[in-house]
Amino acid sequence: MNSLSPSPSCCHTDGPAGLADGMERELARELTLLRRKVRVAALLTALVMLSSLSHMLGGGHHSFLPSWFTSPWTQLLLTTPVLFGCGRDFFTGAVSAFRQHSADMNTLVAAGTGIAYLTSLFTTLFPQVLIAEGLPADVYFESAAVILTLVLLGRLLEARARGQTSAAIRKLLQLQPPTARVVREGQAVEVPVSMVVVGDLVQVRPGEKVPSDGVVSEGSSWVEESMLTGEPTPVAKAAGDAVIGASMNRSGSFSFRVSRVGADTVLAQIVELVRQAQSSRTQVQRLADQVVGWFVPVVIALAIAAFVVWFLISGNAVLAMLFLVSVLVIACPCALGLATPTSIMVASGKGAENGLIFRSAEALETAGGLHTIVLDKTGTLTRGQPEVTDFERLPAGVLPTPTLLALTAALESRSEHPLAEAIVAYARSQLASAQSQLTDRELPAVEGFEAVAGRGVQGAIGGQQVQVGTPRWFEELGINTAPLKPLVERLEVAARSVAVVVVDGRLEGCFGVADPLKPTSAAAVAALRRLGLQVVMLSGDARRTAEVVAAQVGIERVIAEVRPADKASVIRKLQEQGEGPVAMVGDGINDAPALAQADVGIAMGTGTDVAIAASDITLISGNLAGVPAAIELSRAAMANIRQNLVFAFAYNVAGIPLAAGLLFPLTGWLLSPMIAGAAMAFSSVSVVSNALRLRRFQPAPLPGVAN
After folding, report:
1. Which of 101, 111, 295, 641 would you label with 94, given CA atoms 20 to 30 Å apart?
2. CA quadruple 194, 195, 199, 205: dihedral positive or negative?
3. pLDDT per position as a tens digit, 133-191
């Protein structure tokens, strides 16, 4: 057993699995702590609001409450743990920002709630000082508690959104088999995948997953790579061909030499890209931080100036302090904490009604400003399921059509190739509809079945040699395929894959197989172009085939013959060329790196779970019409957020001159902190009311498409 234990430096246990576990543990701790803080803060804030109800209503409305409960001392006891327990991080963040000579949202929250708390504390301890000056002895504990609780709730919602990245990584890691059959000292032994090292010889049997990346050294097979490439067609593998970890061996056995393990594998690289997919901050949050960066210092300077001026004018320190507090309280745009998340929540709910799932606020913000949108072909523009579109008999054929279909279905039913599955489905449907004696349940037996990698299949049926494969294969076998050429050219021009049926050396029939377009594709592309976006089709197909499909849906720019591993590079190149922001629309796991690289990743809901988990936006129905709808909703939401930002600042900014005492010399009117708090509340109501208007959003209907 010692020979099976490589040195510690050879193992790769600190790979993507360890990364995912660490992320999940950290996120779980953060969510648990935030939930606890929000629950405690919400309970205490509700009690503070109830305690201050009589004060807010002007007195005389608290006969049902005991006097000790409505006392400022009770509000002080209830508010203190909210601010300095649940909201401690805001104050430590503000101190940290101050040390770095900057200001952020923590500064704003800490300044507004801290000043309200300290002013209320002074009033509670020394009410006679204000009363002696003829000023009201008001407290503002409820304002401080409400602001802290609302901002904490916003942070909880943000943390829950970030949790999707960890879920995506976990789904990716589940693709990798837990063990590998490694040949060591001449024997095949099962070892954990984490113990596989570069250079190991690994055996893979039919129906097993490839445990790591490598190169085939012996044997041949068809390997299903759709889990990683998104393409439905299995790939023929023989000696010298590369294999990808987590792909599925469909038929045949082979051995391969491991070339990459751990963090170097294709799967691990995809995991790392998905991990980074949602790590950036939102545009609106950055904008808010920039505004706060200059707004907070200016407000503090104005408040200090108001104190100095009124102290010099009146010589009354208490009066001057009230002006300072009023400026700080009214200038604190607490509605800023609601401006973005409220619109985001309403827009996200409206998106769900229309089959659009936004994974993060950043996706909702960015989608409206897209310049270029890249559409993957297979499974996005097309159904992702090959179908027989053409079946023609050839002049040399002598067999009745039902007999030919039965022979073809019998042979292809032994194959694992998706094109074979399409041909079998077509043949069975035709036999059933024709009520032939050779029904799909009575297909003849096949003897000596053989799959020729990259060419086709063959076998003996009832004493006849039946072959189904590519025209090139039959040319190699010496069969005259000249009569086929016009038909093959016509099918290939129409982006069809061609499968020829030969019985005893005779050309009997020809199938054209294609991945048909979704009915919404052309209309959705037209809608995207009307929205001003540049539409690009990305495909691994040959250029001529890709251009045919693109022309059918109205796309002029095509990037063809792109390997799955290069899709993210294509997106990056578009971004570097200044064509961003760029969106990527796909449905396969191979699209996950491109979805992560794109400014906005959009996954079809009919695609793989990992592509959906890695994306920023998911179209639940797989209807491409959802892409323009998502962009329209994003633009409506961003317009709404900008309006909310105006409401968040307008009342406060307009009230600063009044709070600073501009009208006091003329009218004797003092804008008390209580009125300043009411202005803050009114701005919050305006923000929420405006955000609710998004509930009336309806995407523009696409002509001829059912939404």
Report:
1. 641
2. negative
3. 676 677 778 877 877 887 787 677 656 645 544 554 566 566 778 899 999 888 889 99
Residue corresponding to tokens 């039913």: 413
- Residue 416 CA to residue 401 CA, distance in Å, equals 24
What architecture is domain 358-383+518-631? 3-Layer(aba) Sandwich (3.40)
Q: What is the pLDDT of residues 477-520, one digit of tens each?
A: 999 888 888 998 888 788 787 899 999 999 999 999 888 888 88
Least confident of 349-363, 410-424, 581-595: 349-363
End-to-end CA distance of the chain: 62
Q: Which of 161, 280, 166, 274 is nearest to 228 (CA)?
A: 274
Pair of tokens at residue 399: 């067999």
pLDDT of residue 681: 59
φ and ψ of 538, to 5 deg: -115, 130
Reply yes or no: is the peptide bond before residue 581 cis, omega within 30 of 0. Answer: yes
Q: State phi, psi for 460 to the nearest 5 degrees.
A: -100, 130
**Rounded to an integer, what is the distance from CA 603 to the centroid of its chain?**
8
CATH class of 176-268: mainly beta
Does the annotation mark 376 as catalytic?
Answer: yes
- In degrees and rounded to multiples of 5, residue 321 shows phi and psi of -65, -35
Domains 176-268 and 358-383+518-631 agree in fold: no
What is the rounded average pLDDT of the residues 13-37?
A: 69
Burial class of 668 by CB neighbour count within 10 A (0 to 12, 13 to 18, 19+): exposed
Secondary structure string (H, E, C) spanning 443-496:
CCCCEEEEEECCCEEEEEECCEEEEEECHHHHHHCCCCCHHHHHHHHHHHHCCC
Q: Which of 138, 200, 376, 515 is catalytic?
A: 376
Residues 538, 377: contact at Cβ < 8 Å?
A: yes
The residue extents of the domains of the chain are 23-174, 176-268, 358-383+518-631, 387-514
**646 to 146, 482, 683: CA distances (angstroms):** 21, 73, 9
Q: How far is CA 635 from CA 57, 145, 442, 602, 632, in A?
A: 41, 34, 58, 16, 5
Pick the CATH number of 387-514 from 3.40.50.720, 3.30.420.40, 3.40.1110.10, 3.40.50.9100: 3.40.1110.10
